[in-house]
Design goal:
Length: about 450
Amino acid sequence: MNFVTRAGLSLWARKGRTLITLATFLVISVMVLAGVLIDHATARAERDARRSVGAEVTLDMDMDQMTAGGQLTAPRIDSATVDKMGALPQVRSYSYTVWDRALLRGGAKLVEGVADSMGMGPHGTMGIGVLDSSLLPDFRSGKFTLLSGKHLTSADRNKKRLLIEERLARKNHLKAGDRVTLAGNDEKTTGEFTVSGVYRDPRPTGQADAEYGISPANMVYGTVGGLASLDPQQHGAPQVAKATFLLKDADRQGAFTGGAERIGGSALAGFKLEANDKAVRQMTGPLKSVRSTATVAMWLMAVAGAAVLALLVNLAVKQRRREYGVLLAMGEKRGRMIAQQALETALVAALAIGIGALCAPDLTQRAGQALLGKEAAAAERKLDSWKPPPPGSTGLDQGRDPDDEPVENADPIDSITVASSPSDLVTVGAVGLGIVLLATAVPAGAVLRLHPRAILTKGT
């Protein structure tokens, strides 16, 4: 009788032990498959989030580099160079800003708010030229709201158009389509601009903008070409102070940064390219937590299961010593006896994996969803509890880091979809095969040490 037939007869004859081994392997297979399914489901959700949100890479002045080099003026880079960076295949869209003082003319008045802390003069404010206003972080996050009109776009770059805040529009009875006259920093060069849109900034009128030091009510955004026309010394392409690149996929940050550095070369002196995937991290935080928990549980169960099965198989060897003694006396090879033991365990494991494959996806969906729901709820509470530092304070002395400010419209992901595939079963099968080998390795040593004469005469 070959060892394959003996393995089948042995499993049938020892139904109790077979059922115990089956139950043990079923628990192991379900836990391992659940870990694999959760890992794949969270990875898919994270990948989808990265593709939908992309990543923001900012080109901004490098204060450390400027300080070390003794540079006193803010660096500028030619907009044509930035346009080449924006044409890289990793970029979904991009924008850049130029800025200078602009003065209201034609009887228009500023909103009374913050004192003239930046030397703007009685009619002066900050004119910020943008390539695409919809890509400004405050508009993308939902902090700023476009109330009427339309955003400035790259198609408008050489037109004289503006976005103005609703309080400035209300004070001067302006609406989309009206015209406003601005003067440049020399207070002589003027231009007539069309109001493209009116937006809302929720900050109080008396709260100075952290970067420009003027009232948020008086901030004026214009087209880069339009505001550049107010500078009579401007020749050629406008000089950019800051640029923002929205990538197609957050995983392509490295490729974009490398390409941008090659294009920029020495022109990037005083600048730094800094990736900001804060929205992605905020959305995928609960996924990472669930994945790590599931992975740890999976490996703990696999190791514990291998130990339990090794004990069961070792106990079976002791109970079958007389059977093995008879087989050895009949000339059976020890290798075939070890193969029989491994085959018995493998057959039970295969049946357990098959049963586990039927019930694991539904159980994993429920358990994974419940666990992710708790993690997402905890993350939401943490985001909701964040409060901005008081005006005039960085908040660091109060334990409030401004960099921890939540990103708008980037809620933590609270749902996953579990789906099994043939590759998942292959993974579980490989883990199961490893456990079978581990479980039979220790008893195999006992089989190799058996002596048929001692077993049959003394029972040992």
